[in-house]
Structure formats: C-alpha cells, structure tokens
Amino acid sequence: MDSESKELNPIAWNDDESNSRGAQPEGPNGDESFRSGSTSTVAEPPAAMADSMADSSVTQATEPAAVAEPQASEAPGTYYGTTPIFYVNAAPHIGHAYTTILVDVVTRFHRLRGDDTFFLTGTDEHGENIQKAAKAHDETPQEYADEISSQFRSTWDRLGIRYDDFIRTTEERHKKVVSEVLQHVYDAGDIVYGEYAGLYCVKCERYYTEKELVDGKCPQHEIEPEYRTEANYFFRMEKYRHWLRDTLTEQPDLIRPERYRNEVLAMLREPIGDLSISRPRSRVPWGIPLPWDDEHVTYVWFDALINYYSVLVARGTLERYWPHAEHFVAKDILKPHGLFWPIMLKAAGIPLFQHLNVHGYWLIEDRKMSKSLGNVVRPLDLQQKYGNDAFRYFLMRDMSFGLDSSFSEPAIAERINADLANDLGNLLNRTLGMIGRYTGRGAQGCVHGTTRSARQALRRVAVRPRYRGRDGSGAQSQQVHSRHQAVGAGAR
Ligand SMILES: [Zn+2]
C-alpha cells in the first residue's frame, strides 16, 4: 500500500442492475447532502428518544414522554432502521425483543408521518459456536440454524413486529455480497496474511487484550479465554485509526448517546491493531470461504456486519435506503459496530451509516441477562401474561435510551396501573363523558364508528384490568387478568 490517503474507488455492485450502480456517493466525506442529511430527508426520532439520546446523564425519566407530533409541513423522508442480526446459538430473550420492538416503534413513527421506510432484522448463523451447538443437538449446522432462526422470526411475528426483510447470513444473496466486499478490500491491499497469538473467547469469537479482561475473564461471558496461535488473514484496521477518530470528531452524533461515542474515542487513543478476519476451514468449516483462498472461512464479524448492506444490494434498493441507515444495537456489541464496521465501510469505499444508536442492558438483579448466568427472561412468556401492547409499552417506557434498566414483573404491573389504567383510562373516560355532554346525547350516545372501537380497544388494555398494589397491597401487584391477552393482536 503506497499511502494512507489513497482513496478507494466505490465498488460497482451488480453491474447489470442500474439501481445499484451509481449508488455510492464519492465517499464518506465527499457528499455533504448525503452525510448531513437535510431535515427533509432524514427525520429525527420521536422527541422522547431524541431527548434521552442528547443527554446521556439522565436517569429514569419521571415525566411522561412528550408525544412527538409529526409536522404537516415536513416533506416525507426516508428511513432505514436495523437491529443487529441475532446469533442463533440461543432462543430470543427480552434484550433481543427490546431492540427489535424499539426499531419497530421508530419505523412505525416514520411510516405514520409518510416516510419511505425499510426495517431489517435477521439472524447471524455462521461460526464455531453454531457448529458446536449443532453437534450437541445431533444436527447439522444448517438444521440447527434453521430451527433457531425460525424461532426468532415467529417470536417477532407474535410480538407484532413489522419488519420488511429478514436476512439470514447463510443465504446466497448475503454470501455473494460478503465475497465481493472481501475481494475488494483484499485487492486494495487491506487484508494480509499473518500469524497471531493471543487470548481468545470462544463465545465472543474474538481475541481479547489483557487489558480488556476483567479478573482474567471475558467481561461478557465471565469465562477465561483460551490462548491460541493461528495463521489467519488480517484486516489492516490500525491504518484507519486516525481517520475514524477524525470522523467521530467531525460527526459527533455518528455514535449516540455521547457516552458510547466517548467509549469508542477512548479505544482509538491507543493502537487498535489489525483484525483477524478468517479461520482455517479445517477447524471451522461453517462459514463463507474467502474468495481468494478457500482454505479459510470468513470470521463472523466480517460476515455478519455486511448484512446491513448486502440486503439492499440483493433487493436493488441500495441507493434508496443506504444513505438513511440507522443502526440500533446493545452496548455489548459497541466495539464491532463502532470500530470495525465504520472502518470496514471506509476500506470498501462504502459511505458510512447515518447513526449508530446504542442502548443499555436489561438487568436482572443488577447482572446482565445471559444463558450462562441462567437468568434469561423470555418475551413471549411476558406477552402472554400481560398482553402485547402493554408488554411493548413497558419496554419502551421503562428504559431510558442508552442506560441500563432493571427488569422486574412488579415494574410491569406498576406501569400498567399507573400509565395505562389510571392515566390513559381516566383520559378516555373523561373524553367520552365530554363528547356525550357536549353533543347532548349522554355518554351512551356516541358509541358508534371509530369512537366505539376506540373505546372498546382502550377498555381492554386500560380500563378493565385494575391491578391492585398501588395502595400498598404490593403482594397483589403481579396479578393480572387473562382477558388482557386479547389486546395483543392489535399491534400488527
Ligand atoms: Zn466472551
């Protein structure tokens, strides 16, 4: 490589498709209208979320969130929201549900205001862990991935989540684009062959530096990493460290809330090294072979992250949606999304996403929820018990975006009682009373058309189930009425 300032040419994707050609602006810094997004093309999230994004120091909000009123004067824009693709080594838990419902809610907001929207979710299906899990279940990796992937999909369907596409990394449409991106970056000289030795967490599927470990253990999994030596291909990430630091300075809200941008900036203060992006196929056959060396398969992050892009290439909607990409992730995958991903895009000559929006954890007794800790909360259990709308409302209302939140069932009951039954129920009843009085027909006189269906729907969610507990009889607060379930179907 001759110099760091060498500009890579945009890749000509799918040359036979005119809608994907010419989709690339000059580069991340080359096209101002692309990058900054005028208000007519890039709409802001609902006000309540924007507030908490702007101020990472907020604790739990005590006032009800302000309702963002779409402004009639604003022209419709475009919105592309993504969840991470979830790893198929375990069934969906409440943390997965939170991210996915969140993107659903934000996308619904944009859809309501007339924007052209695209909502992507999916599953990440390659890698050593899937190979191992499949073996433990006496299945092929593909069978195992099919099974768990369909669990994610049916869970999202039952939670009323309206995604536009569901990408699986084992699909041909994805593998093809991953190969093209890899080949491009390899040809440009940013992928090199080398030997690596280090401490490797098999669950994260990445190497850790000593400094990143907590008491010698992986901070995510609380297990000791293995010492490994391997000949791999490396992505020359360090070369782009200063570029990323400058980019985060120039675009301060690229990663938000600010605390997570600061975390990434802190990582960039010291050398970040090069990223191992392959595994020997002899050991990990379950992956996408490198296009120039099929003795190696692509390391999971270089495979997985490209999903955000590969879907649009495959659908021929790259130009339409990529300039509006909004990623939503939990903080445990800040490093791959805040560090690897922008550098991968830069090296591949692809413009950056609009924002990386990072949220905290749902904590169970102050610990992260995980399979290995045995404290996993399943979304469908809660949905069945409390109803879909109430469950979704709780998740959106109880967490301040960016901060950790404590999960408990009494907290759900409290939200339903205080916000839905009391506040919303009272508002409904008083409104209906006023309509009745002012139209001179009495409260019964206005129960037709939308008023009637609205009243029935709201009665189911808010008025009838009166949970005890607010008056001090706390032990009863978890009791809910099964009729509450009936509301669930409304969300989809
Ligand atoms: Zn780990």
Short description:
The chain has 492 residues and is an alpha/beta fold. The chain is built from 16 helices and 17 strands.
Kindly list the characteristics that best describe this protein:
disordered N terminus, globular, alpha/beta, 4-stranded antiparallel β-sheet, Rossmann fold, 16% strand, 7-stranded parallel β-sheet, disordered C terminus, 2 domains, 39% helix, binds zinc ion, 492 residues
Category from helices, strands and their pairing: alpha/beta
Q: Radius of gyration over alpha carbons?
A: 24 Å
**Low-pLDDT ranges:** 1-70, 462-492
Mean pLDDT: 80
Separation of the first and last Cα atoms: 52 Å
Shape: globular
Q: The CATH topology of the largest domain is what? A: Rossmann fold
Content of β-strand = 15-25%
What is the architecture of the largest domain at the second tier of CATH?
3-Layer(aba) Sandwich
What's the β-strand tally? 17
* Number of helices, counting only DSSP H or I runs of 4 residues or more: 16
Ligands: zinc ion
Q: Give the helix proportion (percent range).
A: 25-40%
What is the domain total for the residues?
2
In the CATH scheme, the class of the largest domain would be Alpha Beta
CATH superfamily of the largest domain: HUPs
Q: What can be said about the biggest beta sheet? A: 7 strands, parallel
Describe the structure.
With 492 residues, the chain is of the alpha/beta class. The chain contains 16 helices and 17 strands. The protein has helices at residues 32-36, 47-54, 94-112, 128-136, 141-158, 172-187, 241-250, 258-267, 300-304, 307-315, 318-321, 334-348, 379-386, 388-398, 409-439, 449-463; strands spanning 78-82, 86-87, 116-124, 165-168, 191-201, 206-208, 226-235, 255-256, 275-276, 278-280, 289-290, 293-298, 325-330, 355-359, 362-364, 367-368, 405-406. The strands form four sheets. Strands 1, 2, 3, 4, 8, 13 and 14 form a seven-stranded parallel β-sheet that branches. A hairpin with a 2-residue loop joins strand 11 (289-290) and strand 12 (293-298). The longest helix has 31 residues, at 409-439. Bound molecules: zinc ion. Zinc ion binds next to loops.
